[in-house]
Amino acid sequence: MDKKIKRIGVLTSGGDAPGMNAAVRAVVRTAMGQGIECIGIRRGWNGLVFSDFFPLDSNAVSHILAAGGTILYTARSQEFLSPEGRDKAAATCRMLGIDAVVAIGGDGTFRGALELSRLGVDVVGIPATIDNDVGCTNYTIGFDTACNTAVECIDKLRDTMQSHERCSVVEVMGRHAGYLALYVGLSVGATAVLIPERELDFDRDVIERIRQSRLMGNTHFMIVVAEGVGSAYEIGKRIHDEIGLDPRVTVLGHIQRGGSPTARDREMAARMGYAAVMALARGEGNCVVCTHDGALVTKPIEQALQETKHLQMERYAVLEAMHAKNT
Is the pTM above the cut of 0.90? Predict the structure, then answer.
């Protein structure tokens, strides 16, 4: 990139995550300090395809730091998947004089950013997804808030379940990754946590865990299930069929996406938004802002999309240790 950045577009795409607004705010405030104009693109890549935009200035982002969701809205764009749609998006950038786009989202967002970059528009990605499943970064905006939301809900659920000495099966988000389920399960002292990364042995991972917990004197059992493992209702039914308990199933669903972002997500969003704009200001485009060993780094989009992240299974070992049999 050999030209000075004068105007950037910013968008949020894919599933919303708490802290996206904080990232938008950081991008706008940092850009203004660098003499760069900002254009808000509504509804993700759809906004570029259909020219859905508005000017962003300091006043527009002055009261969004604590707000969940995204003021830019988000949507999955079928039109952008086609070459014709991407050509329209690039044409919108040229028409508006947008030199670069800051795209906030997950892997799907970054794949879209890569396609746009191939049409001559510089892009920088900021990872934001509650699943924390973006391979190129240790942390994604929204994960901490989603974990805290789930923990708060389960703590309240435990109060009533303990009173009735019942088994609880709680489904949390995580279609392909168990980061959220394992982090939450360890935080609430779950009897068992079922994650996509670990092949399910129902007798070992559920039934035997409940039995051992009962032998230790417990009368309430908490099973946390990542949605990618299977239906919490089916798991509850199987528990009933095999050992006669009558589980109560709770699917937390999209409540995990909402709410005011935690301090960690606000701080990370501010740092990532700042880093994205500064990368563009120094002439570095077509990259993703990532966390690595506590520091922020940028990686080329193509490299970022090729990287994978493995679940830290030592957390599972800690969970097992918490339910070790007395000797």
Answer: yes
